[in-house]
Amino acid sequence: MEYKKNIFFFCILFIINLVKSEYIYNALDLKKEDVCYYPLLFEQIYTLFPNKSTIIKCFNKIQQDDPWRVGNILKAFNLCFSKEEVMKSYVYRKPFILIEGNNKMITKEVSRLVAKKVGAKYSYTPPECMAGLINSYRYEHIGKTAFYALALYAASYEIKQTLFSGTAVVMNGYWTDQVSVVLLNTFKKSEMPVQGSKVYNLPPDLIAPHSFIYLHTPSSYGDFGLGRTSNLMHRMHEIYSNFNIIPKNIVTTKQNIADTFNDVYAIIQTQIGNKFNLP
């Protein structure tokens, strides 16, 4: 009799998990609904946040079981805002240039060359005010995703302050980088959300780049020890092609860094050189 009860409860548990899995799968299928999935209970490790308030809600949820760690993160975040934020109507004298790519080594080198050329500050996420807490959570914890998402708002604030001072900003690793990580992990064995989906729209409370360049390094160049396959590079190219950020440029890198830099800077000059009086 006891054996039959165990079998019965096992079957019930199996059915519940099956239904739950199907629900989660359907919720994550962004192609069907063409909306971004933001789990109300924040149970997914890889999550897209539509704005800052949603990230804070996520941390409030985590804080119930982990008040000390979350408290340190929120305290560091608040200390990032040491100055009054510039007015939204302010016309920046220098540009915010975003450069990302599927090869970190090449992207970093080109970004630094562009920053040096225009006399810009080379920036990254998380900014220095939050960098000390980068290892607060493991990669398989939702807190890790929330931390990087929140750090974007500290970085966005820092970018505005730098532009306000009359200095350009070149960044490698912004909101687009985080979205690509989430999508690559969410849709490992299925198609990516179609172009036009809301997942590709920059949150309105983050500063938008004046020039956005994605460096596509062909797999034929090798992965430079990054372990990135041809399929992964193709999927990253697809994601970045779908981002709804204008102007957006997909640049195929060359095997010579200097040649790639020249291609990138020529695009920047053509699009925003006159507007911002770039050298």
Automatic annotation (TrEMBL):
Top-level taxon: Eukaryota
Keyword terms of this UniProt record: Signal
Signal peptide: 1-21
Protein name per UniProt: Uncharacterized protein
Source species: Clastoptera arizonana (Arizona spittle bug)
